[in-house]
Write a structure and sequence with these properties.
34% helix, alpha+beta
């Protein structure tokens, strides 16, 4: 595995069901909940974020970021970036 799971419980939940019930701390509301980080480039991170009261996924890499509604599209993007980082 070329990534490290930061929050295993939420990472696994996101793959099988909704994450709308995941509670956030005040800091996580502001910055997002870190789920997965690349081992090769620590600026590549998959977050769970709150956008106007809705849970969404955000892939951040270097100075760019992209928001996704669903797990699979976010994971595909993260995996694509991971592939670039590791080549």
């Amino acid at each position: 595995m070329n990534y490290k799971i930061i929050n295993k419980q939420v990472f696994e939940q996101a793959q099988v069901r909704s994450v709308s019930d995941v509670p956030f701390t005040e800091e996580e509301l502001q910055n997002g909940m870190k789920l997965v980080v690349s081992k090769a480039d620590e600026t590549l991170v998959l977050y769970l974020v709150d956008v106007n009261g809705q849970k969404k996924f955000e892939v951040r890499w270097d100075d760019s970021s992209e928001i996704f509604n669903g797990w699979y599209s976010a994971w595909d993007n993260f995996a694509w970036c991971l592939n670039i980082v590791n080549n």
